[in-house]
C-alpha cells in the first residue's frame, strides 16, 4: 500500500499572501464573526485600527452555538499554542524592507497571534545554511536583503525576539540543519561554509553532497556536526530565544547509497558493524543529542523540539530519523511535534487524523517528552486530503488531541494560511479561536 503522501510544501500556491498581514488577519476574524454569529470576536477587534467526519470526532458547526459539542474539551495546563513563521512568511515583510517597516509588520503579526490565543511563535532563521541574523558562521540569508550574504542593515532576529517577548509570546529559533540549497535560485554564496566545502576537492562530494538540484551537508561528517552545534550555540549565546526547533528535514529524499559511500566505507574500515541505514540513523541521533545538550548547557529551562513527518515509516527509512527512540528515551528532545497533515476522512484509513494522533501518543513513552500536534492550516477545506468544508476541522483536531495522555499542545502551519483564504478558512480561524477562549 502506498504511504500517505507528505512533504511540507514550502511553495504551496495557496500559502502565498498579497498585502499586509495585520490588516488581512483582522479582516478574516471580522468576517468569521459576522458569518458565524461569534460575537465574542468583536470587542477584541474594536480597539485595533477525504468524505464525512469520522465517528470518533465530535462535530462542530460553523454556526452560532455550534461549539457546544466541544465544551467538555479541557486544555492541559500551559497548553502550547504555536504557529510556524516560515521563511516565506518572513520574506513578504522582510526582504528588501527597512528596519522600521519590518519592525512594524512583525509587531502587527505577533499581535494577531496573541489575539487568536496563541502563545508561541516558531521563526525560521536558518533555512539554507544561512542566517536571518548577523553570524560568524553563516552568511545572511537572501530573504533578508534579497541576496545571500548581503547585510540588511539591521538584525531581524533581535527585533523578533524583542517583539515576541513584549507581547507575552515565547519564541523559538527554527533551523534546517543539513540543507544548503534546494534549487538554483537558492544557490549558496561563496562565503557560505557549504559552498566552500563543495568547491574544495578534499571535501566535495563527501562533506557536502549534491542530490538533484540541491546541496546538503553529510550528517556522517564530524565537522558538519560541529558546525551545526556551533550555530545553535551562537543563537543561544546572542539571543534570548526560548528554544531551538528542527522540522522534518534530515537526510534528503533521494539519497542513494552513493550519498555517503566514502564516509560509510571509512566507518566499516574502522571496524564499524552497523548497516547503512543504522549508520545514518546513528549520525542523526548523535546530532540531536548534541543539540539537546547544548541547549540544556545554556539553560535547562530552554527547550529543544523536533517536528517530524507524520508518517513514522518515512521518518525511519527515508529521513533516517528514529523518532520513536527520541520520544521514548530521555536526552534527545523536550517535545515531538508530528506533522499530522491529514483529515478525518482521508481515503487511506491509517492516515486519518484520529488514527494518527493515537499512534503518535503511543510512541511518547518518556514522561519528559511532550507531544505537540502539527496541524495543516494550509489544507483547510481540502477534501482530497480528508478535510471538510464545515470550517471546524482545526477546532475538532485540537479538542480530540486534548484527550490523549501525552498531548500538551499544537503548532499551526503556517502563519499566512491563517490570514488568507475564503469562507472555509475564515470559519476555521473563528472556530479555533473560540475553542482557545474557553
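^ Assign residues to that structure.
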Amino acid at each position: 500500500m502506498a504511504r500517505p503522501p507528505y512533504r511540507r510544501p514550502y511553495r504551496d500556491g495557496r500559502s502565498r499572501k498579497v498585502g499586509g498581514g495585520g490588516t488581512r488577519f483582522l479582516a478574516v476574524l471580522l468576517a468569521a464573526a459576522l458569518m458565524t454569529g461569534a460575537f465574542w470576536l468583536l470587542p477584541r477587534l474594536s480597539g485595533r485600527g477525504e468524505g464525512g467526519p469520522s465517528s470518533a470526532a465530535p462535530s462542530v458547526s460553523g454556526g452560532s452555538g455550534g461549539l457546544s459539542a466541544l465544551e467538555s474539551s479541557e486544555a492541559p495546563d500551559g497548553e502550547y499554542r504555536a504557529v510556524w513563521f516560515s521563511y516565506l512568511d518572513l520574506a513578504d515583510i522582510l526582504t528588501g524592507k527597512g528596519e522600521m517597516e519590518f519592525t512594524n509588520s512583525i509587531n502587527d503579526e505577533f499581535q494577531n497571534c496573541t489575539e487568536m490565543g496563541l502563545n508561541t511563535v516558531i521563526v525560521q532563521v536558518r533555512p539554507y545554511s544561512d542566517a536571518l541574523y548577523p553570524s560568524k558562521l553563516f552568511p545572511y540569508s537572501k530573504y533578508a536583503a534579497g541576496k545571500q550574504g548581503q547585510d540588511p542593515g539591521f538584525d531581524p532576529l533581535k527585533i523578533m525576539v524583542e517583539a515576541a517577548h513584549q507581547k507575552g509570546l515565547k519564541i523559538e529559533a527554527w533551523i534546517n540543519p543539513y540543507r544548503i540549497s534546494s534549487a538554483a535560485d537558492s544557490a549558496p554564496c561563496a562565503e557560505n561554509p557549504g559552498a566552500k566545502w563543495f568547491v574544495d576537492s578534499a571535501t566535495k562530494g563527501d562533506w557536502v553532497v549534491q542530490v538533484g538540484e540541491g546541496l546538503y551537508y553529510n550528517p556522517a561528517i564530524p565537522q558538519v556536526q560541529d558546525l551545526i552545534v556551533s550555530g545553535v550555540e551562537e543563537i543561544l549565546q546572542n539571543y534570548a530565544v526560548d528554544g531551538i526547533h528542527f522540522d522534518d528535514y534530515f537526510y534528503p529524499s533521494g539519497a542513494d547509497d552513493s550519498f555517503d559511500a566514502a564516509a560509510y566505507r571509512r566507518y566499516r574500515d574502522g571496524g564499524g558493524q552497523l548497516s547503512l541505514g543504522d549508520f545514518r540513523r546513528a549520525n542523526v541521533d548523535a546530532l540531536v543529542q548534541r543539540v539537546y545538550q547544548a541547549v540544556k548547557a545554556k539553560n535547562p529551562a530552554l527547550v529543544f523540539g523536533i517536528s517530524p513527518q507524520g508518517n513514522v515509516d518515512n521518518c525511519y527509512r527515508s529521513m533516517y530519523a528514529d523518532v520513536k527512540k527520541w520520544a521514548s528515551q530521555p536526552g534527545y528532545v523536550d517535545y515531538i511535534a508530528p506533522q499530522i497533515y491529514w483529515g478525518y476522512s482521508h481515503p487511506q484509513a491509517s492516515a486519518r487524523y484520529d488514527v494518527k494522533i493515537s499512534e503518535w501518543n503511543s510512541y511518547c513513552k518518556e514522561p519528559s517528552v511532550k507531544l505537540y500536534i502539527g496541524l495543516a492550516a494550509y489544507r483547510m477545506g481540502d477534501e482530497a486530503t480528508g478535510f471538510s468544508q464545515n470550517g471546524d476541522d482545526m477546532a475538532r483536531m485540537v479538542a480530540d488531541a486534548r484527550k490523549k495522555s501525552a498531548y500538551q499542545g499544537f503548532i499551526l502551519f503556517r502563519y499566512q494560511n491563517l490570514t488568507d483564504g475564503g469562507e472555509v478558512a475564515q470559519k476555521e480561524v473563528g472556530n479555533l479561536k473560540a475553542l482557545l477562549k474557553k
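The chain has one domain: 14-437.
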